[in-house]
Amino acid sequence: MPVVLGFEGSANKIGVGVVRDGEVLANPRRTYVTPPGTGFLPGDTARHHRAVILDLLQEALTEAGLTSQDIDCIAYTKGPGMGAPLASVAVVARTVAQLWNKPLLGVNHCIGHIEMGRLITGATSPTVLYVSGGNTQVIAYSEHRYRIFGETIDIAVGNCLDRFARVLKDVAERMLSTGECTPEDLCFSLQETVFAMLVEITERAMAHCGSQEALIVGGVGCNVRLQEMMETMCQERGAQLFATDERFCIDNGAMIAQAGWEMFQAGHRTPLSESGITQRYRTDEVEVTWRD
Amino acid sequence: MQAPQDDAGAGGTGDRAEAQGGSRNPGDSGSAGSSEGKGSLSGPGHLSDPRGLEGRSGCDGQGAHGGPESQSGPAREGAVGEVAVATPQCEQAAHAPGSRGDAGPMARGSRSRLLEFTLIVPFQSPLEADMAHRSLAPDTQRQPGVVQKEFTVNGSTLTIRWTAEDPVLFRISINSFLDRLSLVVRNIQRLGLPASLKQGRGKGPES
């Protein structure tokens, strides 16, 4: 019954999670929130994470009712994500692994989302729509890889929706001042259009793979309208939609622990010398040996 | 990922007070208890901090020597060495073409100069120095060759030597490293070295 501790901090959320045989024993998390109208910068985000990570580690162990001796493996986010936050969390994972004499596992953040989604929802082999502030990918499993069927080239959907607030302030000035439309109209329009695109691409992937399951993961997956639209599409195809709540949609430590658990069981290990973080880490770079 | 890019391990903007005079991260508890310090830097008019560490710049041996604001007490159990920041204040570096955000093209040519900075960190034991090294070394710059970092472990001492041409990236690399070093030190202090590790038992992370 291996117990895996997972560290996640690739964007503005820092979380430490503990998983044992498919059970989430602890999952504390903190979010670095910047003032409205501002985004989060790597250096500041990293500083936030460094300030709280050791407390979170303590919280996770306490919540799980475990000590260091009960932990079998230390998992952490190797990438993708923002450099400074990733590195700040990785040094702690490495130090803890050395202090407690445990094997280390570098986990792909996107795969963390997928494995937690599969665990929580029970979906067997879903087509995955991974949509967040930092990533937007349509993924399906095939022959030991999570294959990327589609992705945004320029900007993730969550990021796009957030930045649109700035567009409303300046560029849309003209349209709004004439009374041609309201900010609500523009937001609605953007969301409906972008979400429809996501649903369409996901549907195409499902048709291509003959898949009867769809799974939404990532922070934007919390959006009820997106879930609604996906549900409609799935129903029309006789497929089943799976989604998680904000505990697991949004970046968290337990998802890294869960992916780490699967990898650990399958014999993966990350030597310290190869444990460097990487801002660009493709979902299909990982050999998914724990699935058939 | 489509988020704004930054150098791996970069600390963001370089104009941070933390790097300049040894002011500490707000989140840090007073991680005190250094082993013997290395004495002061040469150069007129600079403060010496006998408990601090030695940071040497490669330019004429001059540099401000800032110690931690909280005075370190006697070595505490499990404590590791303090870090002091030495900021190179070489004339050449300050006037290097392309620095200070000049809008013009970066015409360095023969005037560009290699900046160099060495940080010597004494730990309580070779074990901790080695551990810190293994925790901190794996994260390399995204563009290798722009800023070089060289790690050496000698007994209980970890030495890091930076060389770079670009003063901004140079500064960012050093600053962000110090932040992570501080975190490792706090981490070791907070969790403590278990007895089994000191005796070298058990299978840990492969190196």
From TrEMBL, chain A:
GO MF, one annotated term: metal ion binding
Keyword vocabulary terms for this entry: Acyltransferase, Cytoplasm, Iron, Metal-binding, Transferase, tRNA processing
Ranges of residues in domain Gcp-like: 29-257
UniProt catalytic activity: L-threonylcarbamoyladenylate + adenosine(37) in tRNA = N(6)-L-threonylcarbamoyladenosine(37) in tRNA + AMP + H(+)
Keyword Transcription regulation among UniProt keywords: no
Domain of life: Eukaryota
One GO-annotated biological process of the protein: tRNA threonylcarbamoyladenosine metabolic process
Enzyme class: transferase
Pfam families per the UniProt record, alphabetical: TsaD
EC number assigned by the record: 2.3.1.234
Stored PROSITE patterns: GLYCOPROTEASE
Listed InterPro entries: ATPase_NBD (IPR043129), Gcp-like_dom (IPR000905), KAE1/TsaD (IPR017861), Peptidase_M22_CS (IPR017860)
Cellular component per GO, a single term: cytoplasm
Keyword Iron: yes
UniProt-recorded name of the protein: N(6)-L-threonylcarbamoyladenine synthase
Source organism (scientific name): Tupaia chinensis (Chinese tree shrew)
